Task: structure prediction
Amino acid sequence: MENIQSRRNFLKITSGITGGLILGFNWFSANASEAEIINSTLASSLDFNSFLAIETTGKVIIYSPNPEIGQGIKTAFPIIVAEELDVDWKDVIVKQADLDKKFERQVTGGSGAIKHSWDRLRKAGATAKYLLKEAAAQRWNVNISELKTEKGFVIHTSGKKLSYGELAEEASKLKAPEKVELKKFADYQLIGSTVKGVDNPDLLVGKPLFGIDYKKEGMLHAQIQRPPAFGMKLKSFDATEAKKMSGIVNVVSFGNKVAIVGKSTWEVMQARKTVKYEWEKEKDLESTDDHNRIFNELMNKKEAEVRRKDGDIETAFKNAHKVIEAEYQCPFIPHNPMEPMNFFAHVREDGVELAGPTQNPQSAQQQVAKLLNIAPEKVTVELTKMGGGFGRRLNSDYALEAAELSSIIKAPVRVMWTREDDMTGGIYRPAVKYRFKASIDKNGNMTGFYLKGVGMNAGNSTRQDNFPVGAVENVLIESVDYKSPITTGPWRAPITNFLASAEQSFLDEVAVAAGKDPIQFRLELLEKVKSNPVGKITYEPNRFIETIKMVAEKSNWGKQKKGIFQGFSVYFSHLSYVAQVAQVEVKKGKPTLKKVFAVTDCGVVVNQSGARNQVYGAIVDGFGHAMFANLKFKNGAPEESNYDKYRLIRYNEVPEIEVHFVNNGIDPTGLGEPALPPTGGAIANAIFKATGKRLYSQPFILADEKLENFV
Result:
């Protein structure tokens, strides 16, 4: 079975086009101008990775390969094309592409989609624009230099003009240029403006866009019972009563799981309650108390993997005027997207059809192919919109479940998780503990910096080349990873989501010990990096400095009225810089978070609306989880299985958020994640200013009963 899903969808759109220009551009290469021109009647015989089509009506169609998870990529991609093409935004249509092996990076994760596709999309739009101008030049018998483009028209210096639709037929017969000229940053009109999300109209009227809405003729519904604790396995089960119930088609086991299959989700849910299970211990059943003990044991052992070593840290501590030391810890937490995990699979003799919300469709394809021992090309993946993910849907476990179950029952089936399944079936953010140690001299200069991270299935729980590394002569960074049966995976801004909070809280403590303003303390360190960096660094100090100075100005740092206390934090991740100032007000002895200022340097902002939403969401996410989120374990099982016990931030608890961007014209970098890491530190530092109390563990709500009313 050939993987032609994207081409089929493209032909559905272009089947009504008579003539016109269809431009195929290569997603493997940044040189998107190396294009071929084809007529719509020939589209099915040519092999392309993605397509830009211009209809004779003037409409422009582009496929967006990256999964849409709420980050706004489905709107941002066509904005980039429309800018270079000089087409009116109302004439642009974008369609979600399904998985195709010819796409290079069909993934939503790591905040890398715009950065990866920036030049490809610009060159695609610019190439089409050149061809349209060339077609007009030939029709009018003028030099192409006499022409300009504006809102879907080619305009001659004399004032006469032709629409793109009128020129599309002639443009389709021309040869694409090897190189095209791209717009300068100062000339952007659509990029950097505020554009509403292309899916907004459908979302507002409740159209079925998500995996949870997916339907297919003959599709069965299933729920799966997994082991009740990490470290347990299935011994036996009795589904006698379930099989008697209305609508139930089958109850089967595979691996350590039992699937209840029926004609509707409701019937399956009712039958699931009647199945009797017997489980047995396979590995140690860990509890939160065990994790705390393991953290302390591993933290105090000398054995660790050295991630970075500059200078002589022992001598720095020995000769220090002051040594500051602190430990920080965070718990496991689930992802909790509003749409629980779900996926459709139909395993047939000639191939496999998959459909659903996934951040990594290629991984799902490859893992299903491996599971069923077939070629990946025989597995198609249709992408639906996702109701959140935050990294959870980078894992393909739920797609594998659907495929394996379909292969067993020989029927199309959609597996649907419940909220309890989502929270108790992992995959979680790893629990981590950090130990920081710093030395300062008599002048308040930091002379040594030590960090040790101990994580539960976290891999490397440090970022050994990030600030303040590069500004300190003596550095030692180590990590230890404990292998736990509790499954973990990426959670929005992996590792840095807590590392930044801990590190920025600690740097504030060092600044206080040095007798320096927290912002000035960091600026001095960054000036050292500029003049004499120590070893490898992954960040640009000038961009760091500009972001910090801007947030200080916007927040009126250090000049607030009585009763208002400010906390500062700044972090570099996903190639972007975010500085934040949190403002806390104290009334009747109780602190309340009132406002957060955020300044982000992510290069060019493609869509102001989408960008602001990303920063707003990241701050709310970072604040809520730092404040409340806590997943505890007892005998291998999570103690919190739904929102009645697991505390999330509520709408009326969201503070005022003021967002600004550094307008520097640099090519865009990540934005979906970078604004989350600094949030916890800014809030913790503001609470210290207001109360004199340092917060060393998340969630903060457990640290002090006064924080119960913090929001």
